[in-house]
Amino acid sequence: MSKPVLVLGGGPAGLSAAHALAGIGRKVLLVDKEDRLGGAPIHSGYAKLVPSGEWAKDAIGAMVDRVTGREPIEVRTSTTVKAFEGAPGAFTVTLADDSRHEVDSAILCTGFTHFDSVNKPEWGFGTFPDVVTTTQVEQMISSGQGVRCPSDGRRPKRVAILLCVGSRDRQIGREWCSKVCCTVSCNLAMEIREELPDCHVYIYYMDIRTYGLHEDAYYWRSQEEFKVKYIKARIAEVTSDGHKLIVKGEDTLVKRPITIPFDLVVHAIGMDPNVDNLLLASIFDVKLEKHGHIERASVYSAMGATSRPGIFVAGAATGPETIDDSIAQGQAAAMAALAQVQGAPVAAE
Ligand SMILES: Cc1cc2nc3c(=O)[nH]c(=O)nc-3n(C[C@H](O)[C@H](O)[C@H](O)COP(=O)(O)OP(=O)(O)OC[C@H]3O[C@@H](n4cnc5c(N)ncnc54)[C@H](O)[C@@H]3O)c2cc1C
Ligand code: SF4
After folding, report:
1. How far is 321 from 180, CA to CA, in rounded Å?
2. Ligand 2: distance of its center to the CA of 205 in Å?
3. CA dist 19 → 13, 302, 331 (Å)
């Protein structure tokens, strides 16, 4: 009987890799440091997902259900990997509780870390309670409490969503575009307008990157159907006059300073490399790319290969990714892991 494949991380990518392997009868050791599976959409309480419109707890919850209690998959939560040694087909993994397992290969599906907005203090987070993040607003919606100002629980009448917080910002060492936050923010703006039809919602942007097929469904629909207003701007600071939050900046279309009051300001936070990546890179002896994500050995010839044979990577561990792409990468990495164990060449050629 073959050894299991280690899948580290039980978010969308890891759940998909585990499900694909179990589907063809392969044993899987699925390990997650949190006390439950589901990854960011579950741990951070996302509301309705882009682009399916399904609630995260239902869509990702169903992915969790189909790997839970399934015989070839051993799930270990609230633990992580302490050591990893050996060669493809004969690795030994030691978990944090010192239990040792023989595994054929490993797929790293360890995802990302949300940007911490305290690293952008001039935009008011951590200073004013009514400056929040997209994940906080998602939690307000998914918990059923609805969109409120944390300071006093009132319903906001004016909301500003600031894009690219912790992305495309060289001053704070984050040069990448986080890929999903434009579309997620357009969607969130529509959800706020749906819940609070009297609330004015403004989106401050550098560029709008509702890539692919999302342009009309999110960008144009939010303006034409939901009357969300867009301001192309450079934001200088978020302050308060004692009653309202004040967003100050420059309207870069008309090249004039703008100062607008709001009740609630939302940071559309980006996707940082997982804070564990340096440790993971040393335990698994894999390379990181220059921003700190796990490096893929090849873009085309070996989906999911890392710099070390027998160790694969999928999903947002490689850089900002959507859920559907993470799922596809999880399946591709599962296939590559299987192919390698069966002797097929998967290294970059
Ligand atoms: C605000 C926001 C909203 C978003 N909304 C959407 C959306 O609507 N639609 C969409 O397509 N995408 C959305 N995304 C992107 C989405 O979150 C990612 O595409 C998705 O979570 C990536 O899945 P993953 O499995 O690769 O990583 P993750 O979801 O990050 O899962 C990684 C898993 O690995 C575990 N892990 C991490 N480190 C370790 C370790 N050292 N040891 C053990 N386990 C570990 C974690 O606990 C976690 O369970 C959003 C992103 C943000 C920031
Ligand atoms: S997706 Fe949009 S909000 Fe997110 S980093 Fe890219 S441009 Fe900025």
Report:
1. 7
2. 8
3. 10, 20, 8
- Written as six digits, the tokens of 124 are 């008011």
What DSSP designation does 215 have? I
CB atoms under 10 Å from CB of 123, counted, come to: 21
CATH class of the domain comprising 5-111+274-341: alpha beta
Question: For residue 306, with 0-12 CB atoms within 10 Å meaning exposed, 13-18 middle and 19 or more buried, which class applies?
Answer: buried
List pLDDT tens digits, range 100-150. 999 999 999 999 999 999 999 999 999 999 999 999 999 999 999 999 999
Within 13 Å, how many C-alpha atoms sit on residue 315's CB side? 29
Superfamily grouping for domain 117-271: FAD/NAD(P)-binding domain (3.50.50.60)
pTM higher than 0.85: yes
Q: Which atom of ligand 2 sits closest to the CA of residue 207? A: 7
Ligand 1 test: best mutation among 326, 329, 331, most atoms within 8 Å of CB?
326
